[in-house]
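Entry 12.
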Amino acid sequence: MSKPVYVIATIRPWNISKFHNEISKLPGKWYLIDDPTKLTIVFLDKINPKYIFFPHWSEKVPKVITEKYECICFHETDLPYGRGGSPIQNLINKGHKDTYITALKMSEYIDEGPIYMKRKMSLYGLAEEIFLRVSESVAEMIGEIVTTQPRPVPQVGEVVIFKRRKPTQSEINKNVGTLENLFDHIRMLDASGYPHAYIDFGKFRIEFRRPALRTDSIVADVSITINR
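Predicted 3D structure (tokens):
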């Protein structure tokens, strides 16, 4: 009897590392797709996967794929609360200290599919630390899904929509208010591939990373470049 085939489609380094170190060692035959151009129906039809998992995938998945294969994505909110973009940043902006990671079946509409399971998670730390924590929980959820093959159930509750953040929203607003709010703004953007918190000063752009909140100050790494 042939082994079941599974696919992980992700573009973030922390998820790619988790695939090589843990997920690929789970029972079955595993494939990694880390380039959106390689997610094609031609390739998938050749390997015929039972599940396609999408931890942190920002591209629209073609309907021909979601209709033919069981596609499972992961969203860092307690769905249906927080449908939409930039969930971690929007949650921190709203003052949340923890959240849930929701594993759901992809559907025609973003974040509206039925749910397989949820896992509670802290929002403590820098963005990249949070994403590492997400990747750990997602790996555990993937292991449970391939083992138990749960049936997804429809979402229940009040729908709240999040808007995807724009790069210009990384600029530090002069009305930020408190040290705690400023710290949250810097830390929630401190991850690979994200536009870091910044201030424009004349022809210079000043970016902030690795913040540490003290009693009456914030200590952070700073980089200064010519603003183009």
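Annotation: The helical segments are 13-21, 41-47, 63-68, 87-93, 127-148, 179-187. DSSP finds six helices and eleven strands in the chain.
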